[in-house]
Structures are given as C-alpha cells and as structure tokens.
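help with these tokens:
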Amino acid sequence: MLRYHGPWRITVLGKDTDFEQRVLVRGRYGTRVLPGCAGASLVVDEDSWTLALEHLAPGRLWRPNLRTTPGPLTDRDGTPCQVVTSNDCHRSGKPLDYANLVLRLERLDTASDTPGTPAGPARSPGLRIRY
C-alpha cells in the first residue's frame, strides 16, 4: 500500500494480463475504485490517502497484487509525476519484475512553487511512501 497526500490524478497507462485489475483509493471520504483499463483516470484530493492495486483471478475474490513498485518522482512539464507498476501474481517462467498494470500519478497543486522556478521532486513534499 502506498500513501499520498494532497491532490493527485491517477491514470492507467496500460494493462498486460488476462486478470481484471483495479486501483483502490482509501481516504477519509471512503474508498474509490478505478478500473484497471488503459485510459481510466481518477482525481483524488484528500489530505491523506492510500493506493492499493488488486486483481481478480477467475472464480476467486479480489486479491492484492503480489508486488507494487513506485518509480521515482520526476518532473513532467513542471508537474511532479510518478509511474507505479504492479505484478498481480507469480507464474512459472514470468520475470519477477514483470508489470501487469502501469499507472501514472500527477501532482495537481504545484501552484505554490515560486514563479520561474521549475517544480521538481525535491520541491514536492506531497509524496510520502509507506510500505
């Protein structure tokens, strides 16, 4: 589970698995579900919230993905961004770092940065990751 603070946009960049995928966002105002379909997007604006990724194996319940890997915080046209990848379960012959689901998170409140100074990871206190 990853923890974030403040407003972010979550966008599903891609899915490469037969299992259904979903993104769960839990915060003070309840749980929201983003389907794991390329192009799906959700804006979250809460002081503190968590992100979890799950898959649905045939005939089973929703299960947490085996591995969720947050990438480094980067600058995309002045907006702090992060790519998060996830592997739903391990199968024989599949690399351990295989990404079944890929998300991009974009920080939305960069207006507080000093004009003329590029926003970047070092200036974005909004990302806190807890494993």
Summary: The longest strand covers residues 41-56. Residues 65 and 88 are 4 Å apart (CA to CA).
